[in-house]
Amino acid sequence: xxxxxxxxxxxxxxxxxxxxxxxxxxxxxxxxxxxxxxxxxxxxxxxxxxxxxxxxxxxxxxxxxxxxxxxxxxxxxxxxxxxxxxxxxxxxxxxxxxxxxxxxxxxxxxxxxxxxxxxxxxxxxxxxxxxxxxxxxxxxxxxxxxxxxxxxxxxxxxxxxxxxxxxxxxxxxxxxxxxxxxxxxxxxxxxxxxxxxxxxxxxxxxxxxxxxxxxxxxxxxxxxxxxxxxxxxxxxxxxxxxxxxxxxxxxxxxxxxxxxxxxxxxxxxxxxxxxxxxxxxxxxxxxxxxxxxxxxxxxxxxxxxxxxxxxxxxxxxxxxxxxxxxxxxxxxxxxxxxxxx
Length: 341
What we know:
The protein is an all-alpha fold. It has helices spanning about 5-30, 35-50, 55, 75-85, 85-105, 120-130, 130-135, 150-160, 165-185, 190-195, 225-235, 255-275, 280-305, 315, 320-330; strands at about 200-205, 235-240.
């Protein structure tokens, strides 16, 4: 029996957003430091103060965060409204909104994808205040594609698996933010490129051990999942387990969602003792990357290859069609056919 429509559309996403905030809150209590969103929050504050965030943020700099700023100025501009709030409150609002958007989109047709939110990848994403959940929402909601340019590497992969409406929203939002970014800070592009070029932490999945197998997703190019997984395998990514949220999106059925969430979580459990034994951060990171291929990307590839390479129009629009079909079913007059015993 299906839950009431209003519960699935609003109640469950609100519950998942609250659950995600609880994960983030307790993670901040247990671990000192800043969230991943805080990096952009500090960058927006630097812009408001008239500084260059690409020069003032990073180890040994005036704002001594763990990482340099790797996000484009369009992301910083989009986050500026939250920079007017205290860092802790801005973090919670970001986690809440990201989780709600993803849950609203992923669960709009049914609750089969709820398993995403219990995977290790999603828990790591929530506790870190990462962008993967917000970017993943663009896979399900055309209007949410407006956020895809905020993390271009993942965003272009998600966009590859969407339709023309998503491209319009993504293009319009990107152009709008780009105009504002260049008006406020005309030379930001050269600083951004300098910060992301030649960095060891950005590695495409196909460059990791066994990652070349992901090119087989080309055999399913006519499906949205095939296009999405192929482009995702090409774009540079940080080798951290929160990135495992995106490969989970290829699942359609309840069983596929359960299997991918379970297998990817098992990989995280395997990763913990191996990462702790690594002598340096770089070695640990590459170890995580290899495990992600084995437990996140290759299982997703198997799911994609099990499907025929046919036009995915029916499945591409399933999230929009099913709620509409449900509404039409409610409005359909009762059948006049007799029941024969």
